[in-house]
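ARCHIVE CARD
Drawer: 12
Card no.: 0347
Subject: one protein chain, sequence and derived structure
Cross-reference: see card 0346
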Amino acid sequence: MKIAIVILNWNGEKLLEQFLPSVVKFSSNLATIYVADNASIDSSIAFLNKYYPSIHIIENKENGGYAKGYNDALKFVEEDIYILLNSDVEVTENWLNPFTTAFENDTNLAAAQPKILDFNKKEYFEYAGAAGGFIDKFGYPFCRGRIFDSIEKDNGQYNDIKEIFWATGACLVVKKDIFWQVGGFDEDFFAHQEEIDLCWRINAIGCKIKYIGTSEVYHLGGATLETSNPKKTFYNFRNTLFVLLKNVKGAKVWWLIFVRLILDGLAGVKFLIDGKPHHFLAIIRAHFSFYGQFQKFLKKRKKYATSTKYFYIKSIVFQYFISKITIFNNLR
């Protein structure tokens, strides 16, 4: 199978300058490299043309965020396997080989991710994906190696290959035909959680998603939106509600959303106590944005809601904040 590495870029010349060398050095023999530019106004395109003429450039007409940006660009990519790679990721030698082996050995494998380590603290997992993603019953995402803001040190505890519920958008490996079969990314998400929504639909058609711990990359993180940015809070809280409404089948979704709104309110109060009023306001804006698109997502759930077993545990909030469990392998 032919592999395409597709890097989405928006005004990221400095990131391309820093991280492209490792991608080219350790990937060119096995993959075609693309940069999908989201209507940048910096010198990204000129930089690529000057220093990386062999890289294929796809120029999107607008900055449609992660979701639309990739949907628009991937229409021009013909390879069998997409690797959607953030522009702030440093890859390592032989990082592609475990994926080619995994997809060759399991024809039902549709998507995967590598071990995501922190570029600045290389002995630790990185927030966005760590060692594979899961969600709880109320739609809160967490990872092997990362629960909320608690990041585990990499001691080899996740040097395995394991089925997961969602693979990180920072380095998402997905079969082209499956990506389009399930409808690609939902562009109403714009950014954040769209990979969870995509992976939910992949699970719903009976395909597998795996974490491949024998492949390692280092993610800078926060290059587009830092964790401290209220916009990130807005997208995370709103889009996890979108995921529940769109994908959970049956009347139980109303109870789940009701509980979520209460839990989100408590999270907002905690932000206020911690002296972060802008994040409190971001949660309020997230809820109003959710209500504003409620009817649109009601229509989507008619098509996409499934009885797929989606949650790993009932409440990650309870286990983390009440039971004080911060290590994935200690969850119960």
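Annotation on reverse: The chain has eleven helices and 13 strands. The longest strand covers residues 208-219.
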